[in-house]
Design brief:
The structure holds two protein chains of two kinds. By secondary structure, chain A is α+β, with helices and mostly antiparallel strands. Chain A has five helices and three strands. Helix content of chain A is 44%, strand content 15%. In chain A, strand 2 and strand 3 (131-139) form a beta hairpin. The radius of gyration of chain A is 19 Å and the shape is elongated. Chain A starts with 7 loop residues before the first helix and ends with a helix. Chain B is mainly alpha-helical. At the A-B interface, helix 1, strand 1, helix 3, helix 4 and strand 2 of A face helix 2, helix 3, strand 4, helix 8 and helix 11 of B. Chain B: Keywords: Acyltransferase, Endoplasmic reticulum, Golgi apparatus, Lipoprotein, Membrane, Palmitate, Transferase, Transmembrane, Transmembrane helix. Chain B: One of its GO terms (molecular function) is protein-cysteine S-palmitoyltransferase activity.
Chain lengths: 158, 384
């Protein structure tokens, strides 16, 4: 299957959405935010396994950092409690800082890795931290892609 | 549909399903019934006002000025915790968007295989193993998701809440992952405040009675009688509640799990979330990270705005791709019931800007359910 090379702008303007792949949460370690390493079948011929696994692993690392219960979170908790949590009106929590980092990371991954392959990663926070949504696009501009897009949608319906 | 496009900026909270009320343009989130919450406020503010009016002048002079100061600090802390519990998002899980819901349905159907006609399909349960314990995740028909572990659906607020503890009418909100510590600190500080006021009421009455006699004292400070009454009845309930929640925290359990007996110990069932260490459990619940809200209440909806630019300020720019217009639109107001939700699933793909979307609408979603038939969806769109 031919890969059309897009940048993020092209994706927005000319590509059409074919389907979405979802990577679910991995609850084997409890309620901490973690995504499964399972590779969705819809992405079989769109992206290399290792690339996606690396992305998911890095994301899991970020979330683990945000939710770590350790010295720093105790300090933050105690300071906040002592000020009746009013300190959160002026200060950003550690979790929010890490979320901004994650958002930047996803943007970067989209630009460098996913958009050139006609894919788009959605930040999990916009899906309630439940799934990692990967939108699969097909370039409408190139006519030859239409038969393959219908086969890919048939494949997606598997 | 009229040709005039109304470009009023609509924030996402206005279109959130569920039975919550929002104030201050989405900053405040509460349950619908707030009557008992107002009662709580009235009782706390009323009793403390009486204390400051009747007891404090006497005690400040005859005992120590630190007494009213400490009472004021305690009162402010109680109010801060109460308002924080009542006004914050308890950890509501947003409902699944159509594509995600369809994907989950497909997975369920694939897992169930062929169900013979006339037979009821098996219950929708997913098993996960957490710390060598099998935990069953139930499917929520309203939110169309498999609930994460410890989440539960609150029927009063009509939302799935993460780490759902209980719905508290006294604070007018659910108690869940995000506001449990504030709720606990509220009950704890309220217990302390009640004990404090009760003690100093007694001290005040005793001190005055020594000089003036008991009955005269009561006549001079009628507020004291009211305060003692309120404090006496509050003490039993609030101190009891604080004790109960302290017990729950030490075991890392929620009220919901306790009531259902999820980890009651029979059949070798143990709480997989507990660290088996009281200190660790307390630290995790009370000093854990401050979880962010996953409900984007104050983000702007992409209603009636020409597709691509103007990403909602609070979401990342990578999501300002066309499908955002399709995916934010399905947060249809007040269409909770599964039956009503079905036609609305069809509407959004067509609702986004017409010129580009027609062929895409036919393709989305390819994992089609009957309702995404193009004609039904266009008809629905025209009724909007």
């Amino acid at each position: 299957m031919a890969t059309e090379f897009h940048n993020l702008q092209e994706l927005r303007h000319s590509a059409s959405l074919v389907t979405k792949a979802f990577i679910q949460r991995d609850y084997s370690e409890g309620t901490v935010c973690r995504f499964q390493a399972k590779f969705p079948s819809e992405l079989d011929n769109r992206i290399e396994r290792t690339l996606l696994e690396e992305t998911v692993k890095t994301l899991n690392g970020y979330y683990a950092e945000a939710e770590k219960v350790g010295g720093r979170s105790y300090l933050e908790g105690c300071l906040a409690c002592a000020t009746a949590y009013t300190v959160f009106f002026c200060m950003e929590t550690r979790y929010e800082k890490v979320l901004r980092k994650i958002s930047g990371f996803i943007q970067e991954q989209n630009e460098k890795i996913f958009a050139p392959r006609g894919l788009l990663l959605t930040d999990p926070i916009e899906r309630g931290m439940r799934v990692l949504e990967i939108s699969i696009f097909e370039d409408r501009a190139s006519g030859s892609s239409s038969p393959s897009s219908s086969t890919s949608s048939a494949g997606g319906a598997r | 549909m009229s040709a005039v496009m109304i470009t009023r900026k609509v924030r996402k909270w206005e279109k959130l399903p569920g039975k919550n009320t929002f104030c201050c343009d989405g900053r405040v989130m509460m349950a619908r019934q707030k009557g008992v919450f107002y009662l709580t406020l009235f009782l706390i503010v009323g009793t403390c006002s009486l204390f400051f009016a009747f007891e404090c002048p006497y005690l400040a002079i005859h005992l120590s000025p630190a007494i009213p100061v400490f009472a004021a600090l305690l009162f402010l802390f109680v109010m801060a915790m109460l308002l924080r519990t009542s006004f914050s998002d308890p950890g509501v899980l947003p409902r699944a968007l159509p594509e995600e819901a369809t994907f989950i349905e497909m997975e369920i159907e694939a897992a169930n295989g062929n169900v013979p006609a006339g037979q009821r399909p098996p219950p929708r349960i997913r098993n996960v193993q957490i710390n060598n314990q099998i935990v069953k995740l139930k499917y929520c028909y309203t939110c169309k998701i498999f609930r994460p572990p410890r989440a539960s659906h609150c029927s009063i607020c009509d939302n799935c809440v993460d780490r759902f503890d209980h719905h508290c009418p006294w604070v007018g909100n659910c108690v869940g992952k995000r506001n449990y510590r504030y709720f606990y600190l509220f009950t704890l500080s309220l217990s302390l405040l009640t004990i404090y006021i009760f003690t100093f009421d007694i001290v005040h009455v005793v001190m005055r009675s020594v000089d003036n006699g008991f009955l005269n004292t009561l006549k001079q400070t009628p507020g004291t009688v009211l305060e003692v009454l309120v404090c006496f009845f509050t003490l039993w309930s609030v101190v009891g509640l604080t004790g109960f929640h302290t017990y729950l925290i030490s075991l890392n359990q929620t009220t919901n799990e306790d009531i259902k007996g999820s980890w009651s110990g029979k059949n070798r069932v143990q709480n997989p979330y507990s660290h088996k260490n009281i200190i660790k459990n307390c630290c995790e619940v009370l000093c854990g990270p401050a979880y962010p809200s996953v409900l984007d209440r104050r983000g702007l909806m992409q209603e009636d705005s020409p597709a691509l630019s103007d990403a909602p300020p609070s979401s990342s720019s990578s999501s300002s791709v066309p499908q955002t217009t399709k995916t934010t639109a399905p947060l249809i107001p007040n269409e909770h019931t599964p039956d009503e939700a079905k036609p609305s699933i069809a509407a959004p793909p067509e609702k986004s800007p017409a010129p580009r979307e027609e062929p895409a609408g036919a393709k989305v979603p390819p994992l089609a359910s009957p309702e995404t038939d193009a004609e039904t969806s266009i008809a629905k769109d025209q009724t909007h």
